[in-house]
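Q: Is it fine to ask for two folds in a single conversation?
A: Yes, each is treated on its own. Send the first.
Q: Here.
A: Result:
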Amino acid sequence: MQKIVVLSGAGISAESGISTFRDNDGLWENHPIEEVATPEGWEANQNLVLKFYNIRRKQLFEVEPNNGHKALVRLEEKFDVQVVTQNIDDLHERAGSSNVLHLHGELKKVQSTIDPTLIYEMDSWELKHGETCEKGSQLRPYVVWFGEDVPNIIKAVDIVKEADILIIVGTSLNVYPAAGLSHETRKGVPIFLVDPANVNTSNLKNVKHIKSGAGEGLKKLVEQLMND
């Protein structure tokens, strides 16, 4: 069975109504990135960071997977499919994808601030100041912030190296280290890039750019792959 690896980013979740990573003005929902997505921001104002992620988490509880997420699930009828996502939502899982690796954490989980191995599932959207882990420390969002290591990047590299087909959707390939994953494929492996924008693909070989949104583009691509 051929292995398809999917690299997904904010663009696929945007079609479900999830706010994209940042606006053109460099702000993230009116907050500088440094205030809400760095260890320094957390140290400076925990309440602001908690509020920011609570808003995002509440939004996640209100949206559903879209046609792009669902199209990828269909591939599992014929292929061994592994999704590697930069997104912290659970829309791939809720659509039915069996194998999902999150590079930047998961919004519906929280972790201890003194022991990062203590990770807890959330069944509500709100994390409050004063909620602690079993060791007594404040819980924080289970999210990889700027300046922090990406623990799953090595695992992701190994996955991409096994790909027979690589699909890139919803990501501009500008966020490192995730952006480097597209260069880890074996020689000759076909790459399909689904993106409505003009993307510079000159540094990628064997790439076909499907210039449309995630839902429409993935539907066409999956139909092609299922019929080949």
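Q: Second one now.
A: Result:
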Amino acid sequence: MRLAVWVVLIAGAAMSSPVTLQAQPAMPVIGILNSTSSAGVPEQFAPFHRGLAEAGYTAGQNVGLEIRSAENNYGRLPALAADLVRHPVAVIVAAGGPVSALAAKAATAEIPIVFTIATNPVKSGLVNSLNKPGVRVTGTSGLTSELDPKRLELLQQINPEARAIGVLVNPNRPDVARQSRELQSAADKLKLSLEFQNAGTSEAIEAAYAIFAQHRLDGVLVTADPFFNSRRAQLVELGKRHALPAIYQWREFAAAGGLMSYGPSIAQAYHQAGVYTGRILKGADAAELPVVQPTRFELVINLKAAKALDLAVPESLRMMATEAVE
């Protein structure tokens, strides 16, 4: 009996004092549009969450996450982007190269978009300019595929006897034709012959490396592409199995046992995306946030891998390296 009276009293007090029971503001939600596999999201986004925390946001506490991954099928991105717009979300973080950023931009002109890293965002039509995007899209300019010719040069430096190089390209990449043309032009200047192999699946990667080995090529350039980054362990293992010197775009490849890598820091790019996302959630206009350009490029050489391949790393290359993995 006493319990019943107590409940009634509580209910009555609540109804007589409506001012004290105000609705709490809805938690903002970040939509993540990822072109690659969902399996790699936790590792990839650790720097993103650190950047987000600098603005005072922690996923699950004061901001929500909605993740959509295309699982390396770039054709799925438009539908996934549209799904995030319908959710709706406060900001879309486009991860895994310009393909996801372009899909997000095509899906909405209202929701701010932050891309983690994108090759030439002006030329691709993502933004009007780097200093003032002019649209609600911003992020980090990656200089990823633009550095493929430089990677070819570095591969020749570590293996001066090289004459024929295998090139792994993703045929699903929107700018693959331009990427291949620029590489061929660089190879002509270096007097190198290139053998291109398309690989848009794990099975195709295996087949491509088997062909490279069968043709006794002198090395492999794994071109810049989000799909290849998601297949890092497979690519490094294949390089070891076939004893093929290879160069990649991110330091994580060399850290995992690959011969060498050259490019900007992917961790810094994801961190910057977290910082910008936090600022936008606090009211900043994405159209006014300049696209960040990398100021430092990492040349990472795995000395253990070089020894296994019987390659003597030239002193000039050692001096250029930002990191040597023992």
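Q: Anything structural to flag on that second result?
A: Two points. The chain has a mean pLDDT of 89. Residues 145-263+298-325 form a domain with the Rossmann fold fold (CATH 3.40.50.2300).
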